């Protein structure tokens, strides 16, 4: 086996556990978990609070809501909020993105994170 094949095999093996860690989410359960987020966020398009609107956040670039004052860390991160990235971010926002304004400690249970993401996906319309 040559080096490039070994590298490809190692990359596949390294990626497999990360994908397996995200359980399938339930949007109805996620709506209940989202109650923890409502002090700072809403899913209404164009409505920002302490945090930006989370309407259509899944698939959106970080720092892209016009009129919301993001942290420099968020503006410069060049993150796309896909499911995998949100899953990591929601576990520990300040660890994922040092300098973020989001002071929430995070959702420690993988199923809570997956459920919130499933709920947020329903808010993309």
Automatic annotation (TrEMBL):
Which superkingdom?
Bacteria
Q: Which GO terms describe its molecular function?
A: electron transfer activity; heme binding; metal ion binding
What PROSITE patterns does this protein map onto? CYTC
InterPro entries, sorted = Cyt_c-like_dom, Cyt_c-like_dom_sf, Cyt_c_1A/1B
Database matches in Gene3D superfamilies: Cytochrome c-like domain
Which keywords appear in this protein's UniProt record, sorted alphabetically?
Electron transport, Heme, Iron, Metal-binding, Signal, Transport
SUPFAM superfamilies per the record?
A: Cytochrome c
Q: Where are the transmembrane segments?
A: none
Span of the secretion signal?
Answer: 1-20
* Sequence ranges assigned to domain Cytochrome c in this UniProt record: 25-124
Descriptive protein name: Cytochrome c2
**Which species does this protein come from?**
Polymorphobacter multimanifer
């Amino acid at each position: 086996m040559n080096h490039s094949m070994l590298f490809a095999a190692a990359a596949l093996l390294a990626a497999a556990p990360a994908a397996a860690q995200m359980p399938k989410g339930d949007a109805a359960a996620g709506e209940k978990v989202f109650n923890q987020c409502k002090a700072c966020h809403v899913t209404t398009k164009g409505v920002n609070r302490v945090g930006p609107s989370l309407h259509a956040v899944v698939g959106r670039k970080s720092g892209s809501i016009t009129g919301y004052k993001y942290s420099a860390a968020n503006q410069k991160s060049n993150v796309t909020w896909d499911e995998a990235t949100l899953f990591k971010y929601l576990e520990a926002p300040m660890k994922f993105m040092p300098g973020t304004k989001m002071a929430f400690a995070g959702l420690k249970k993988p199923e809570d994170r997956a459920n919130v993401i499933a709920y947020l996906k329903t808010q993309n319309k």
